[in-house]
Amino acid sequence: MEPIIFIVGDSLEKKRIDTIIQKNIPNKSRNYIQSLINNNYVKVDNKLINKCSLKLKSKQKIEVQFPEEKSLEIKPEKIKLNIVYEDDYLAIINKPSNMTVHPALNNYSGTLVNAILYNFSSLSNIDSDPIRPGIVHRLDKNTSGLIIIAKVNDVHEKLVEMFKEKKINKTYLAICKGNFKENTFRLETLIGRDPHERKRMAVVETNGKIAISNFKVIDEVSNFSLLKVNIETGRTHQIRAHLKFLNHPILGDDIYGSTSKILGRQMLHAYILKFTHPITNENLSFLGELPDDFSKTLKTLNLKLNNKEILGDDYE
């Protein structure tokens, strides 16, 4: 793709460079544009820029280059997956931590997409972006747990609509720092980009999107709690940002809390998925087995996982 060159207009003076580029190239996502900046594909007045928060002046020249199209050829890779459920229309995967859901600039290998391209002969392809076949929703790289994969386009579209209409119930487990005064509580806020750190999301007063999380304390010990979390919305880093806002960051979260010398990732696991099958109308419920590091952390902290309390009448 040929480079795109434009001049910063008066109305965009003092705006961030990633915001300015997105307004001039609206068919590219903000994440994609930030990846271009971070990987030296953007120049301002003929000088390479790799700071997304840089604010520009009117009349400055921006040149945006693009990686070669061949870099977008995502190859199947023989990666073993924990397939919890599969039929002709969809599949449920228990994703491990340390696995990115879909490729991004300069990271086209080892992702869930590479794995599902190898493991499934059919995947939906309604997204114009070729790097997300079958991907209906996402989990953070270091969040483990259940994720839905669509095999055909009409099911993909139905699942997306079900997420919008809150007809897919997702339950997470989180081990966080500190103890809570209340056993159950609901948090409804706006979440947007952290104005001080572009890699983070934060609870904001303006320029954010509604985010709703419901919390229940399953067990607690001194300085640590095990939470059940049901989310009504699916904002980026929603649970992590909400618990940071409450001053109870998830254990091991190096972005919203602090780095752990023992844990390599945040202790957040997508534990339960419940929804009605978009084709068969069957009521489906899945429980994602805990990964070893999560189970070990529960044991080390002496936190008890009570499935009957989590699953209620569905527990057997």
Description:
The chain has 316 residues and is α+β, with helices and mostly antiparallel strands. It folds into 3 domains: 4-66, Structural Genomics Hypothetical 15.5 Kd Protein In mrcA-pckA Intergenic Region, Chain A (Roll); 71-164, Pseudouridine synthase, CATH 3.30.2350.10; 169-276 and 284-314, Pseudouridine synthase, CATH 3.30.2350.10. Helix content is 19%, strand content 28%. The protein has 7 helices and 14 strands. The strands form 2 sheets. Strands 5, 6, 7, 8, 9, 10, 11, 12, 13 and 14 form a 10-stranded mixed sheet that branches. Strand 11 and strand 12 (224-231) form a beta hairpin. The longest helix has 12 residues, at 153-164. The mean pLDDT is 90.
Number of strands: 14
The topology string of helices and strands comes to EHHEEEEEHEHEEEEEHEEHH
Q: Runs with pLDDT <50, length 5+? A: none
How large is the count of helical segments? 7
Gross CATH architecture of the largest domain: 2-Layer Sandwich
Content-based structural category:
alpha+beta
Distance between the termini: 56 Å
**What is the CATH level 1 assignment of the largest domain?**
Alpha Beta
Instruction: Choose one word for the global shape.
Output: globular
Q: What name does CATH use for the topology of the largest domain?
A: Pseudouridine synthase
Name the CATH superfamily assignment of the largest domain: Pseudouridine synthase
Note the main sheet. 10 strands, mixed
Tell me what portion of residues adopts beta-strand conformation: 25-35%
Indicate the percent of residues in helices. 10-25%
Mean pLDDT, all residues: 90
Q: What would you report as the Rg, rounded to the nearest angstrom? A: 21 Å
What is the number of domains?
A: 3
